[in-house]
Amino acid sequence: MRIVGGIFKAKNLKEFSNPAIRPTADKTRESLFNILGERISGAKFLDLFAGTGGVGIEAISRGAKKVTFVDADKSCLDLVKQNIKAVGAESADHELKLSDGLKFLSETNEKFDYIFIDPPYKTDLGQKALKIIFERELVSGTGAAVFETEFDLNSPYAYLYDERTYGRAKLGFYTYKKPACVFAGTFDPVTKGHLDIIKKAENEFFKVYVAVMVNKDKTPMFPLATRLELLNTLFAGDPQVTVVYSDGLVVDYLKKVGTDYYVRGVRNAEDLEYEKKNGELSKAIYPDIKTIYYKADKSLIKCSSSAFKEAYFSGGNYKKYLPKEIIPVTEKALEELKK
Hints:
Blueprint: H1 26-36, E1 44-48, H2 54-61, E2 66-71, H3 74-87, E3 94-98, H4 101-107, E4 112-117, H5 125-135, E5 139-149, E6 159-166, E7 169-175, E8 178-185, H6 192-204, E9 205-213, H7 224-234, E10 241-246, H8 250-257, E11 261-266, H9 269-285, E12 290-295, H10 305-313, H11 327-338
Parallel strand pairs: 1-2, 1-4, 2-3, 4-5, 8-9, 8-11, 9-10, 11-12
Antiparallel strand pairs: 5-7, 6-7
Helix pairs in contact: 4-5
């Protein structure tokens, strides 16, 4: 192990003799700090579950104002102290805390610009740490928490705005979730494409209002009650999603729920152009509106309510457009339409 950048570049770090202890690899550490870039300079940095202290010492090397190392194992902090001395960073502003990581987060009154979380992989300590960090607002508004794991990076507690993979290791970069947004449409019916956009919104927002819009000038395939039933079935047990209906303007509903964020899904350049033109009209009515465009996954580019209807009426495989949770309800609704 060695320092890969900054004033202590190429200085060697001592490692544990125990192979069960897994420090962050040099390549992963280098990528982490390349992503954070010059923002580390002058930042307050927390190395949680510090281990060898390699990440925190890298932060010192790259100009961090202060680094706090936290570990529940005294032998780890002893090694951190040795590594700080080995690279010649004794004069840097740093602090060593012998503490359980979650306990430290629960009790500290200090706020950090960046928090690096690297617990043992086969635990849920990382997600628990994210929960405490963002509930207690321990990260500055312009900062981030970074979580290293080999498992799923999505978190209900924070907005995962970037992720990278280096072999087994995955790095997730998190900031605060926004309070709420509205995703409106006819949902005639709701498809895998809609679900994809809603899941993307859930990553960024604590609450997603899925608004079924009632347009008196249109005759949908499914009645309003059915469309609401399909959505409620799909999101049963999901506290982040609230299904509603509205017969007014979208901007009026945004005001009603107290948010400026309006979510739209786009499948291609034509979709984006169309949505931006509509966004200009909405902004003329409601200047505070903030429209967020989520790009559909490549596998769902051709997935839409229109595609479902085309397949159904032509005798094709319409079920492939539907989330599996709503296929039984949709089948029942289709039988009702035949009567």
